[in-house]
Amino acid sequence: MPIASADPAVLARMVRVDQLVSVRRSVLAGMPISIVLSLTATLVAIKSGRPVIGLGWLMLQLLVSGVRIIASRRLLERAVATMARDGDIGQANAHWVERQLRWTAIAAGVSGCVWALVPLLCDGYTSPQTVFYLTIVCGTCAGAVTYGGAYAPAPLSFIVPTLLSVMVSLVIAGGFQNVSLAAMVLLYLVGLTRGVLVSEKAFRTGSRLRNEATELAARLHRAHQSLQASTQALAYRASHDFLTGLCNREGFTQAVAARLAARSPQAHCLMLLDLDGFKTVNDVFGHKVGDRVLEDVARWLTNELDGLDAVAGRWGGDEFALLFSMEAGMKTPEMLAEALIRAIPFATSHYGGHLGVSIGVLKFRTADALEFTDMISVVDEALYEAKRAGRNRYQVVDEALNLQLAARREVERDLLGALQSRSIELWYQPIMDVRNGRIHSLEALIRWKHPRHGRISPEHMVFAAASTGIAENLLRYILDEICRGMEQLDAPGSPLAGVPVAMNVSPREMAQLAVDEIVLGTLAGRGIATCRLQIEITEEIALDTHATRGRLSALSAAGVAIAVDDFGVGYSSLASLRSDYVRQVKIDRSFIDGLETSPGNAVLVNSIVQLGNSLDILVVAEGVETRAELEVLTLLDCRLVQGYLFARPAPLPEVMAWAAALPN
Question: Rounded to whole angstroms, how far apart are CA atoms 603 and 626?
Fold first, then answer.
């Protein structure tokens, strides 16, 4: 950053202050000599028979000198006080400085007028003591010029009346010798005047250069401090979350790395927190309220961690990470987790919403710690285990969880090979039309039997694919298998020719992949009509981001039917029905289980069915397992059902054989 030159006006003021301080110091330095010379001149006057005049002159001289000394001391004391307060006497008021300089010159002039009375002590420089008095006067003038060269008006005010008095007295005395001496005094006055002017100019030049260097050095120092402050601010911004003030992901990672580098035997705890219900707060109350909630949560975390030698960070979105010493306070990780679970709901209580928190907990000793990325993976697994167990709870990493994580890593490692070897299968479960007993459509479900860990759930496969960057590979594989299955369904003599097939698309896939382009491109490439495919999504996806809604609209416009799965369990159930692209909803099995003994569920199911009929949306009841449940659904006019009562998921040849055995 370039450093601007010093302001000329500021420099000029600083030079004037230097002149004032210098001339006042010269007064203090020269006054003792002037007083001694005055005493000497008075003694000579008394010795020569002029005691009254001599003592009167001395009293006047001492009075003027005393005033000048006192004034000079006060000014210097003020300068020191200004320096102590502002760090720079150059900040003094310019008018005050000029006024003090003028008074300094006036005081010097008054003192010069007193010295101009010296002819009274020696009969106008005609007495035998003339040489003595001329020597004292000329020496005093030389001293005034020497000491007062910083500010020319001051010594000039002193020497001009003093030497003019000498010249006038010598001219009045007459005679060639006295007139010649007067001429010499005139030359002496001219020389002193020129000398003092040159001296002042040199002083001002030196003062300007010194002050300019000082000012530039001060500006450079301030610029350096400003640069340091900016650097620190940038470093802080780079490592801290601007909203909550906590460490961001990078800052938290660095803080943890610094602690791990110590390799001390101290025990620590790493926690990963995820807010339950934060998306609801954001969607219902708005993002501004959501931001305030995050700020409140950060404050609650800070309060709960007080005294624990802790590092807190916003890991991302509505996730927070904590690292604290287990030996720094009395709270155990379990106690802290329970306290946070109790405290976090208060962060949204005044907004009208409700917030919970799921927590993963990892205890470790620094000397035995894994790499940080591995620890985060472990504690993240614990966090999602807490979510799967019902949310708003904590899960401590234990041996079982470590084994589960190891299994997940093996699944992630082997998934790509399973896709390449086509070890992943698609099983199908029929959706029945109770009015005619025929198969209305099929739902495709992925199945994979891992060589070591057995059956892997579809959720784990989708998560593993996303974690290893092969989510698109998995989606394309499923689409390809469905297209192969449709070709089998349309084989001559098949009882399921033309039957639509539904596939599930997870929120992660819908958010991260161009599902519309992949699906429509695959169907077009295989020559399959878009009306043969249905895509099942969760109701949260139906109301998700603009990009997600755009993909769903594109699929619907092309003829792909969009179905909302697990309908009724989310906060946005009714809102999802307003979407133009939704053509089918599947009532969650929690409403179907024990339907014949639950009047409340019967009312809810009836409402959904009637609402679907009004909006021309097909309604499917999933999870039908008993004849009693089917009878109630029939009475409620729910025409489409799915469940173990009819058929379990099975490979396509078995489903086709089962369909062929159905009565016409």
Answer: 19
Taking the model in full, what pTM does it have? Answer: 0.57
* 461 part of a folded domain: no
Cβ neighbours around 334 below 10 Å, total: 13
Judging by DSSP bridges, how do beta strands 533-538 and 501-504 pair with one another? parallel
Residue 345's domain comprises: 249-397
625: three-class secondary structure by DSSP? coil
Residues 268 and 189 in one domain: no
pLDDT at 572: 45
User: Which one, of 179, 149, 68, 177, lies nearest residue 115 by Cα?
Assistant: 68
Asked if 427 contacts 458 with a C-beta cutoff of 8 angstroms, the reply is: no
152 with 253, same domain?
no
- Domains contained in the chain, number: 3
Contacts of 475 by beta carbon, 8 Å cutoff, 6+ apart: 505, 509, 513, 515, 518
147 and 61 in a single domain? The answer is: yes
> Do the beta carbons of residue 353 and residue 285 sit within 8 Å?
yes
d(CA 525, CA 507): 25
pLDDT at 1: 44
Low-confidence ranges of the chain (pLDDT < 70): 1-6, 76-93, 263-264, 328-330, 347-353, 367-369, 539-547, 568-580
Q: What is the CATH number of the domain that holds 535?
A: 3.20.20.450
What CA–CA distance (Å, rounded) separates 470 from 492?
36
Choose one of 177, 200, 220: the last residue of a domain.
Answer: 220
Q: What is the pLDDT of residue 49?
A: 85
SS3 letters for 146-212?
A: HHCCCCCHHHHHHHHHHHHHHHHHHHHHCCHHHHHHHHHHHHHHHHHHHHHHHHHHHHHHHHHHHHH
**What's the confidence (pLDDT) of residue 84?**
45
Residues 441 and 384 in one domain: no
Indicate whether 215 and 312 sit together in one domain.
no
- As to burial, measured by CB atoms within 10 angstroms (0-12 exposed, 13-18 middle, 19+ buried), residue 381 is buried
For residue 297, is it within any domain?
yes
306 plus 438 within the same structural domain: no
Residue 592 falls inside a structural domain = yes
Question: How much is the pLDDT for 547?
Answer: 66
C-alpha–C-alpha distance, residues 589 and 605, integer Å:
11
Whether residue 215 is found in the same domain as residue 96: yes
Beta bridge partners of 619: 585
Which long-range CB contacts under 8 A does 231-240 form with residues at least 24 apart?
none
Write down the residue that tokens 């029945």 correspond to.
Answer: 432
pLDDT attached to residue 482: 95
